[in-house]
Amino acid sequence: MSRVSTGRTAVATPAAVRTRIRGRRRDAGAIWRGLFFASAIFLVISIAAIMVMIGRPAIALFAQVRPWAFLFGRVWAPEHGLYGVLPFFAGSLAATGMALLIGGPLGLAGAIYLAKLATPRAQRVMRPAIQLLAGIPSVVYGWVGLTALVPFIRRHSGHVTGFGLLAAGIVLGVMVLPTFISLAEDALRAVPQDIEHGSLALGTTRWQTIAHVIIPAAWPGIAAAGILGLARAIGETMAVQMVLGNSPVIPTGLIVPASTLTSEIVLEMGSTPQGSPANNALFAMGLLLLLVSLGLIVAVRATRREATAGVREAH
Amino acid sequence: MSARRTDQIARWTVTAAAGLILLVLGYILGSVLINGLPVLSWHFLTSRSSNLGPGGGISLQIFNTLYIVIMSMLMAVPVGLGAGVYLAEYALPGRLTSLIRLATESLASVPSIVFGLFGMVVFVNAAGLGFSRLGGAATLALLNLPLIVRVSEEAIRAVPADLRHASLALGATKEQTIFSAVLPATVGRLATGVTLAAGRALGESAVLIATAGMSSPRYLTLDPLASGETLAVHLWAVNAENSLSDAARIADGTAAFLILAMLAVSLGIGWLARRLDRRLAGQG
Amino acid sequence: MTTETMSLPTMVPPAREATSAAPETTRAAARGETDPEPQPAVRVRDLSVTYGTTLGIKGVDLDLPERSVTALIGPSGCGKSTFLRALNRMNELFPGVATSGEVLVRWDGRFQDIYAPGVDLVELRKRVGMVFQRPNPFPKSIVENVIYGPRRHGVTDRALLAEAAEEALRQAALWDEVKDKLNAPAAALSGGQQQRLCIARALAVRPDVVLMDEPTASLDPISTGKIEDLLGKLSKDYTIVIVTHSLQQAARVSEKTAFFLNGELVEAAPTLQMMTNPRDRRTENYVTGRFG
Ligand SMILES: Nc1ncnc2c1ncn2[C@@H]1O[C@H](COP(=O)(O)OP(=O)(O)OP(=O)(O)O)[C@@H](O)[C@H]1O
Ligand SMILES: [Mg+2]
Q: Which residue, judged by its Cα, is nearest atom 16 of ligand 1?
């Protein structure tokens, strides 16, 4: 390839070849361009298709059940025509909140450790460990939760089963760690070194510098990491379903069987006939999840914009 | 409390938290392997699962998992790579590009159970396939698409500009440059990303329960329209149905197998990345 | 050292007030060739720094006279910043740094080797402050930047903090420009104002020594002029070490100048002498612009 570029060889190229080269057709390029573009557009079509396909049965449900009776109804009893999903929605929010309560501080500590305290050797252990944590299938999380965590809670709480939001919150809290830690670490590392040194030069301790300069400066990025963790937690299905106990009532405690939007969908998906109001209600719950997730993405985009503005400001 | 004392305590706490994370990982891996490895006999790995009595194995699930993961990657990689090329090489800043990016990010945030519902309407019901490996793989491909798009775009953007310029300066068209100069230089990162996606597909279950189903054909078949229960789905199903006396044993074995597969994939990612990096460094 | 020692009223020794009141002529006289140097605030003995295998500085001996400005000059890469950072051990933030020799800092009345085992870096950096080449305000408000140091060092009284902020901003000749927008973000200030804010931030900790690494490198001539004026005033209270690439700046602001080349200290003498009558041939070449 490189030989063609040298002047001498170019001169030596026989005229016939030169004509061929110059007259080369370029149609193949246009085809490829079209294919690349089509692939990109396919993403837009996919998300649109998902919204339509999930939305249609949901709208069919709202022809029969008023949206507010769906959203705020406290009783889920399809056999009696009651489609209130408040118990599931409350369960999802509570489980996600627990996950953030447990995974947030732990994850922030992990991110601070990785970004600011760990020696290169400790980092070489910690980083793959977090990747492994991300790679464990959610059913395995659920299985460990079911066979180790739930019995543990049962023994130490005196409750009958040990199922409930506490178990789900702990499992979810661990599951969101990888997402949260890697993004929060990026945010912490993005804080310019010169303001870190500026603080240390004032005679502050490492921790004072971390707590009063680095974390505040990285905060939008940490918040974005938290929101993405939240999105992961609220959409998680299998692990939660396995440790939650699956009772369709508004949870009254941390160690009582409860349900979430996701666990209820996976439980009833196979047992409700297509087109039935009960089946449509599952799609309406899916739509709710979809909208919450999309809302979180919009929130992340907003905080990220703030984050980049903040870093620019620091200069 | 003096600043120095606070400093010590805070650093100690943070380090302890990091240690706790390692412990949790160690506990999960350790307990799954300790409970499950003894189950992983040759018989367990090579015999079919049983719906009635104890003694079933997971051979069909292993096959189905490989089948579905490979098929889904075959669908997702070309499209994802194409979209990645478009975003890295062609997309001009503007409304359309932001729409594509928004779509990619949104798709990445869709919960897997929603993909499952989508796959159920489209493939199981509308297309009339019923539970099928094809439907499962296609839905799974959709789930992995945003990841592959992102990895591809980043890999392509990381290719140094002079490589591109050298090719263009020879009079190669943009598309020729992409195929002969840019994409070969991305192989390392791309392979890592694809393996990552494959690992995720390996453990995915919420998508597949509703699309590929919870049963397997009686005979070993390559039929894409047959249903295909994967390992992850099997782990959940034996446990949810709870009809077998040795359900817990099978679940233990399946979990251990999944973890081993995951470890193999992770090690594979590292090995691949190193090897391909070295090869490319040698070439450059 | 406990944090209580940082409470503000006791932080300015009375001696300083007397110095501030001294007439201008004293300073002018200090530039004369024959006047003895004031006693040092920092003595550096056989100081060497390496970054892994790269040489930073080698065998430097230098006294930094108290309450005066010492300028460090020399071509790029000769080790000025390395030397400066060795004085408050900021070099140690870079991996692979090794330091040998002594840096003796006047510390509670006697000289203390800051590289001796057991020296508290936090206490050291409270005494030896630093201003960086590029303004590096924290992404906080103006006033929060200034009171950041005192607050971390245990001052909680709001009135005291406000007083300290005003004083530091006045010392840094920034007060009049920002007094009406103390709560505005620091990033909204101009580059020159940001740099003076960083000076105020360093001064608010009440250091004995202030290290400045090319503090005007990224500033326009007017901001540079303001900071140079400031240095003259500050040197009544503080021992200042400034790295500069401008010989004119060294001549305008400093009493003593040290010339570095390839990691070694070639010569150090009163500024006037360095500019007009250097002893070493290499210094002469540098100040007359024959290389560098
Ligand atoms: N953090 C570092 N890591 C490795 N080497 C360094 C580091 N800082 C400085 N050096 C090396 O030490 C030597 C002295 O550098 P130093 O920054 O002290 O020079 P300088 O006189 O301040 O130059 P300039 O005028 O360009 O700021 C140089 O060879 C430089 O490459
Ligand atoms: Mg320098």
A: C79
Atom of ligand 1 nearest to the CA of C79: 18
H or E segment at B32? helix B3-36
Residue owning the nearest CA to atom 22 of ligand 1: C81
Structure tokens at C100: 């040998």
Residue A113: CA count within 13 A, CB half-sphere: 28
* Radius of gyration, alpha carbons of chain B: 23
Picking from B169, B147, B166, B149, the residue whose alpha carbon sits closest to that of residue B157 is B149
Domains of chain B: 40-283 (1.10.3720.10)
- Say what the ipTM of the complex is: 0.92
Gap between the Cα atoms of B77 and B269, Å rounded:
17
- Domain end position, chosen among A40, A62, A84: A62
Give the total number of structural domains in chain A: 2
Is the CB of A201 less than 8 angstroms away from the CB of C140? no
- Nearest CB partner across the interface for B25, out of A1, A5, A133: A133
Instruction: Let me know: does A157 contact A255? Beta carbons within 8 Å.
Output: yes
> Tokens in use for A245?
């106990």
End-to-end CA distance of chain A: 45
Task: Give the model's confidence band at C58: pLDDT under 50 very low, under 70 low, under 90 confident, else very high.
Answer: very high
Are A36 and B114 a contacting pair at CB < 8 A? no
Say if residue A39 is in the same domain as residue A83. Answer: no
Nearest CA to ligand 1 atom 28: C77
Number of residues that make up chain B: 284
Q: What is the pLDDT of residue A250?
A: 86
Residue A44 structural domain: 3-62
Residue among A5, A32, A141 whose CB faces B170 most closely: A5
The residue whose CB lies within 8 Å of the most ligand 1 atoms, and thus the one to mutate among C53, C60, C78, C82, is C82
Which residues of A fall within a CB distance of 8 Å from C140? 216
Q: pTM to 2 decimals?
A: 0.85
A156 and A266 together in one domain: yes
Q: Is C258 helix (H, G, I), strand (E, B) or coil?
A: strand
Q: Which two tokens stand for residue C87?
A: 């004085």
C-beta of C48 in contact with ligand 1 (< 6 A): no
Q: Residue A310: its chain C contacts at CB < 8 A?
A: 139
Residues contacting residue C119 through CB under 8 Å, at least 6 positions apart: C112, C113
**Ligand 1 binding pocket includes C94 (Cβ within 6 Å):** yes
Q: What would the pLDDT profile of C79-99 be if each residue is shown by its tens digit?
A: 999 999 999 999 998 988 999
Residue A104, domain CATH:
1.10.3720.10
Q: Which residue has the higher pLDDT, B278 or A181?
A: A181
Q: How far is the CA of C98 from the centre of ligand 1 (A)?
A: 14
Task: Check CB contact under 8 Å for C152 and B2.
Answer: no
The beta-carbon neighbor of B21 closest among A50, A106, A286 is A106
- Pull the structure tokens for residue B263: 């470890």
| Contacts by B35-43, CB closer than 8 A, 24 or more apart | B35/A147, B35/B252, B35/B255, B35/B256, B36/B252, B36/B253, B36/B254, B36/B255, B36/B256, B36/B257, B36/B259, B37/B256, B39/B249, B39/B250, B39/B252, B39/B253, B39/B256, B40/B253, B40/B256, B40/B257
